[in-house]
Design goal:
25% helix, alpha/beta, Type 1 dockerin domain, eleven-stranded mixed sheet, two-stranded antiparallel sheet
């Protein structure tokens, strides 16, 4: 159930520690969704319209945090609004002492219950994604999860078990499974792993939490590179500056992007002289969003109404549609033949083209909202053709 939120979130206790950004521009619409565990704040960009597919990002908090305090630490809200995202930050379940957590891997953090009988957070987050898709026009090719610590472990588990729902994950200070047999997705998933080299909580070089072993940051990336079919040798990229407390470009970048299935690259950002909660600057936020957007599958260019894909709209396109409908002739890009943009391909599309060509009818619409006011443009980007 969705409802408008009438109060702004409270400033999290993290601000008292001097981390995060205390200034927020709440120009986006704040709404709430409840799928069984209580309300979840959903921030909807002020540029959102139901006719235009929007990307989705979900932020998963670390153990003993909650969604609101995690957002105050990362400060993704403003960038999400500016880039047109639907954005939410759910809460994990809480112990009787109020410690919230996600049932991620056997290393982190099942709160002492038998691991296989813990609450099913994969099912919960899958339901959250499907519920958001039902209530908003979400672009299924741009669905991302960002997680910190326990939330990062959970992001990895979601990618392992529900790659069909995700475009990419970003894990900060959280690792994947130590046993590769626990992560066998049937689709590739782009991964960005960010980790402080002197993290005293989740060790950069791997370690043990309770009875569970977790791999190192680099082993996590190597595991995903193997899953994604990438070349095992990463490229050394230019260092970047994402920690305001360390001077210079303190973060080393490795990228596995050669021969990856579906171009699903893997990156490791090793934040030198940084712990479990780096003092991230604005470069971190823009870098995370840039990575997510670069992970989205490259859409196919087409002109709506150009059924035969000869880069023009003419009578031959109407004939092509009729031959498809009644003569069994194939159309390689069905969406290009959907001249009236009504989500179906039928006789009305041929009629629409004929009215446009011979009776001053309206031109076919742009194939994608990114085209703006351009009605017909071969350079217009659209989603993959069905």
């Amino acid at each position: 159930m969705f409802q408008k939120a009438h109060a702004l979130p409270l400033v999290a206790t993290l601000l008292l520690l001097g981390v995060g950004n205390s200034e927020k521009a709440w120009s986006q619409v704040l709404e709430s969704i409840d799928i069984g565990r209580g309300p979840i704040t959903v921030e909807v960009s002020d540029t959102y319209t139901p006719t235009q597919p929007a990307p989705l990002v979900i932020l998963l908090h670390g153990r003993a945090w909650d969604g609101e305090s995690m957002e105050n630490y990362f400060s993704l809200s403003s960038e999400a609004n500016q880039r047109g995202y639907v954005y939410c930050y759910p809460d994990g379940l809480a112990t009787f002492t109020g410690v919230r957590y996600w049932n991620a891997t056997n290393a982190c953090c099942c709160q002492g219950c038998p691991f296989t009988t813990c609450d099913d957070d994969v099912a919960y987050l899958s339901l959250l994604i499907s519920s958001l898709q039902s209530n908003y026009n979400i672009d299924s090719s741009r669905v991302h999860i960002v997680g910190h610590s326990n939330g990062g472990f959970m992001a990895h588990r979601m990618a392992c078990e529900r790659p069909d729902l995700l475009t990419s994950i970003v894990s900060v200070s959280g690792m994947t499974w130590s046993d590769p047999a626990n992560c066998t997705p049937n689709e590739s998933v782009p991964v960005l792993q960010i980790h402080g080299t002197i993290d005293p909580v989740i060790f950069y070089g791997g370690g043990i939490l309770g009875a569970g072993v977790y791999p190192s940051a680099q082993e996590t990336c190597e595991s995903w590179a193997a899953i994604n079919g990438c070349n095992s040798s990463p490229q050394i990229m230019p260092s970047i500056d994402i920690n305001a407390s360390v001077s210079g470009a303190e973060t080393d970048v490795l990228r596995w992007d050669s021969a990856c299935t579906d171009d699903a690259s893997v990156e490791l950002w090793s934040v030198s002289l940084s712990g479990h909660l780096p003092n991230f600057n604005s470069n971190f936020v823009t870098g995370v969003f840039d990575h997510m957007e670069n992970s989205a599958s490259s859409p196919e260019n087409f002109i709506r109404g150009d059924a035969n894909e000869d880069l023009s709209i003419n009578l031959a396109d109407a004939v092509q549609i009729l031959q498809y409908l009644f003569g069994g002739q194939a159309i390689s890009c069905l969406e290009s033949a959907n001249a009236n943009s009504d989500a179906s391909l039928d006789l009305s599309d041929a009629v629409y083209l004929l009215l446009h060509l011979f009776s001053s009818g309206a031109a076919p619409g742009a194939p994608h909202p990114a085209c703006g006011t351009a009605l017909v443009s071969v350079g217009c980007i659209s989603g993959s053709c069905p």
